[in-house]
Automatic annotation (TrEMBL):
This is Similar to Cytochrome c oxidase subunit 6B-like protein new16 acc. no. G2TRP6. It comes from Pyronema omphalodes (strain CBS 100304) (Pyronema confluens). Belongs to the cytochrome c oxidase subunit 6B family. Its main location: cytoplasm. GO terms for cellular component: mitochondrial intermembrane space; nucleus. Residues 17-46, 148-168 are annotated as: Disordered.
Length: 168
């Protein structure tokens, strides 16, 4: 791969060259000049260490996983939802609302359903569904409390952008 070296402050970095700028010359490894001032020497060593840690340098190793993840198709989503519903039904039977906080009890009572749920669904979906379950429970409890206090439901007007009929 053809490339060229670019000097930036105290370090030299390799910049990927355009395929139109190819040469037949082999690329030489850069040598960083050692500064005579000890303070500058410390600074250049620390920047080399940071680049080696991958904080400011580019990584040359490639991941074995593909960078793009494929979204689940319709049948995979249906399997995920079935596993979620089975897991949540088991939690309901055992009066467990928050399976994250009561993880030990949930795994003890609904271990099989939990394993299937986590196997069939993407990890981010599992986390989302568990949090959503708790949020919906809290919302329902708040609505019941408000109704018990005598709160009345208010009609919400049409969404913005649609014609609204004024009362006559």
């Amino acid at each position: 791969m053809a490339g060229f070296w670019h000097r930036r402050r105290s370090s030299i970095i390799r910049v990927r060259a355009s395929p139109f700028l190819t040469t037949n010359e082999p690329t030489a490894q850069p040598t960083t000049p050692k500064p005579s001032n000890p303070k500058l020497l410390k600074r250049s060593q620390s920047s080399d260490q940071l680049a080696a840690m991958g904080l400011f340098g580019t990584s040359t190793t490639k991941s074995t996983e593909p960078e793009t993840k494929i979204a689940p198709n319709r049948s995979q989503r249906a399997k995920c939802w079935e596993a979620r519903d089975a897991f949540f039904e088991c939690l309901d039977r055992n009066s467990i609302i928050d399976s994250v906080k009561e993880d030990k009890k949930a795994k003890e009572v609904c271990g099989g359903e939990n394993v299937k749920f986590e196997k069939e669904c993407v990890a981010s979906w599992v986390e989302y569904f568990k949090k959503r379950r708790v949020m919906e429970y809290n919302r329902d409890q708040m609505m019941k409390g408000l109704q018990n206090e005598g709160a009345q439901q208010v009609a919400i007007p049409d969404p913005v952008g649609q014609a609204q009929v004024s009362p006559k």
